[in-house]
Amino acid sequence: MENTKDKVVIITGASSGIGEATARLLAQKGAKVVLAARREDRLQSIVKEIQEQGGQAISFKADVVSSDDMQKMAEFALKQYGRIDVLVNNAGVMPVSRLHELRVAEWSQMIDVNIKGVLHGIAAVLPTMREQRSGHIINVSSVAGYEVSPTSAVYSGTKFAVRAISEGLRKEESPESRIRSTIISPGMTETELLNTVNSPEVQAMAEHIKGLAISPYSIARAIAYAIDEPEDTGVNEIVIRPTAQP
Ligand code: NDP
C-alpha cells in the first residue's frame, strides 16, 4: 500500500457503516484520516481506537448539509495535516418509500444529504486540490444509482446524480489538474442505513435485505484499492454487491 501511506484522507459519514470501516482500514494502511459526521461521541471513540492501534486519526463534527461546516472541516484538515489528498464523500441517508406516500420532507432530506452534501464536499476541497495539482475525490453512489425499483425513485435519483457529478468532475479536472475521481457503488451492505427507513413496506423487507448484505469492509477495500493505485491511474468506477443480490 505504497501510495496510501501518509495520504491525508477526509471521510464523511465516518461515524458508522462504510465510512467507519474505510477510516479504520485506511488508517491501518498508514493514511492520516479525518473522520467527519454529526455524532461526535461516535467519532471520538473510533479515533481513540485507531490511535491506540498506532494509526493517525482526528475527527471533526460536521453536517454535510451545511456548506459552512464542510468548509470548516477542510480548513481543519489542512491546519492539522498540511494538505488534503483524498475526500471520500460517503455520508448518505435512505428513507425510501413509494411516491404516493408523499413523504416530501424525506425527499428533501435525501436531496440535501446525498446530492448537496457531495457538492459541498467538492466545494470544500477542490481549490486546495487544484493548488496542489493533485487530489482524489471518491463519491459513494449505489447499485440504486444504476437501476430504479418501486420505493427507490428519489433515493435512486440522488445516486444517479452522484454518478453524473462525479463523471463531470472527472472530465473537467483529471486532464487539467490531475485530480482523480472515483464512483463507488455498493449493493446491500450491513450498516445502519436501514435505520433511516420509515416506510412500513420497506421495513417489512429489512430482514431479507440484512440476510443478503455484505460487510462494510468489502466496500472499504474497494475504496482503498482506488486510492492505492499510482497517481497516473484513475479508477473511475467500482460496483460491489453481494454475490446473491440480483
Ligand atoms: P450508515 O447509516 O451506517 O452511515 C451513514 C453515515 O452518514 C453515518 O456516519 C452518518 O453519521 C452520516 N450522515 C448522515 N447524514 C449526515 C449529515 N447530514 N451530515 C453528516 N453526516 C451524515 O450507512 P452506510 O454506511 O450504509 O452509508 C454510507 C453510504 O453508502 C451512503 O451514501 C449510502 O447511501 C451508501 N450506500 C449504502 C448501501 C447499503 O446497503 N448500506 C448500499 C448502497 C449505497 P451521523 O448520523 O453521525 O451524522
TrEMBL record:
The keyword Ubl conjugation does not apply. InterPro entries: NAD(P)-bd_dom_sf, Sc_DH/Rdtase_CS, SDR_fam. Coiled coil: none annotated. GO terms for molecular function: oxidoreductase activity. It holds the Pfam family adh_short. Its EC number is 1.-.-.-. The keyword Ribonucleoprotein does not apply. Keywords: Oxidoreductase. Belongs to the short-chain dehydrogenases/reductases (SDR) family. PANTHER family: DEHYDROGENASE/REDUCTASE SDR FAMILY MEMBER 11, DEHYDROGENASE_REDUCTASE SDR FAMILY MEMBER 11. This is SDR family oxidoreductase. The lineage of its organism: Bacteria, Bacillati, Bacillota, Bacilli, Bacillales.
